Amino acid sequence: MVLLLRLFIEFFKIGIVTFGGGQAMLPLLQHSFVTELHWITQERFLYFVSVAEVTPGPVALNMSTFIGYELSGVIGSAFATLGVVMPSFLVILAVAHFEKKFKENVIYKRFMLGVKPVIIALLINAIYLIVNRGFVGFIPYIMAIVSLAVFILYKKSPVLILLIAGVIGVFVLR
Amino acid sequence: MKKNLRLLYDFFIIGLFTIGGGYAMIPLMRQTFVNTRKYLTEDEFLEMLAISQITPGPIAINMATFIGYREGGLLGSSLATLGVVLPSFIIILLISMFFTNLTQIPQVQKFFIGILTGVVGEITYITFDIFKKANKDIFYIALLLLSLVELFILKINPIYVILIGGALGIIFGKFFEDNNGASS
């Protein structure tokens, strides 16, 4: 039980300091669980990261499930995941609750006016990061361009397009 | 209740197809909640995205809680968050229990990279689409260019890039907000 609580608390802390994508939390996790607590070996940690980055879902969640299971089975992963989710959940509940009140606020509106172009830049950055880390050789680029064309022409069912891209990948990627 | 279960289902699908970081889910979320379900306008979606980036926690969880709360209160936000968490949870548990080497199998790797190429096409598409629909005055273009410099050349953390954009919006916004009547 102590271990479960500790898992919850460690991941709660990670959840508080993680912003955005989740990659930023990896060094913090490593520090907590490998360097400080010695609960996970460095090799195990790196294996988890390599899997967490290619499996579906946010990296933070995949890591919490992995480490929780490693230390305390299914119940451990549940506690770890709950821990990493809780800060987000609580903060956003508060924000969503008061949203109506500040939505009409002029400062809020101007803030959002300045934020919108930033989102375009962040999306371009996201494309760059994925291409930089995951694309080897020229075939992935061709596939990405083809899928862009498909999305422009047929935007109804993104999930289907992604699945087809995955299946084509099995056959044409090296 | 039907709406809450739909939130659970929608976010489960979104969680399942988020490969390649939190931003990978943005196109699917936009398609689902702005275009198909019409829960949000484009502007509301973009504002939510910005808030999700500057508050603690993975974007996926923040967006799920946010949209869930708006559509179904506390229960809605709980179910939406559960939905987006479950695919990760189940898949990683299965890998831990039975398929320790799953991601080492070449076919599996290729399948995931294939999906990743689709994700890149998808994000590229919505980037153009959001840009196309935006009110592109000189303020918008200048801030976009500034943000690109901050991200690619100065390597500033995205949270600060958003906060800088917001701060400049507060300072200079009054000169431009008249042109953006459509955005409110």
UniProtKB/TrEMBL annotation, chain A:
It comes from the Bacteria. Pfam families: Chromate_transp. The chain crosses the membrane at residues 12-33, 75-98, 110-131, 137-154. Keywords: Cell membrane, Membrane, Transmembrane, Transmembrane helix. GO terms for molecular function: chromate transmembrane transporter activity. It is a multi-pass membrane protein. The keyword Transport does not apply. InterPro entries: CHR_Transporter, Chromate_transpt. One of its GO terms (cellular component) is plasma membrane. It is found in: Cell membrane. Belongs to the chromate ion transporter (CHR) (TC 2.A.51) family. This is Chromate transporter. It comes from Caldisericum exile.
From TrEMBL, chain B:
The chain crosses the membrane at residues 7-26, 46-67, 79-99, 111-131, 138-154. GO terms for molecular function: chromate transmembrane transporter activity. It comes from the Bacteria. Belongs to the chromate ion transporter (CHR) (TC 2.A.51) family. It holds the Pfam family Chromate_transp. It is found in: Cell membrane. InterPro entries: CHR_Transporter (IPR052518), Chromate_transpt (IPR003370). One of its GO terms (cellular component) is plasma membrane. Keywords: Cell membrane, Membrane, Transmembrane, Transmembrane helix. The keyword Ion transport does not apply. It is a multi-pass membrane protein. This is Chromate transporter.
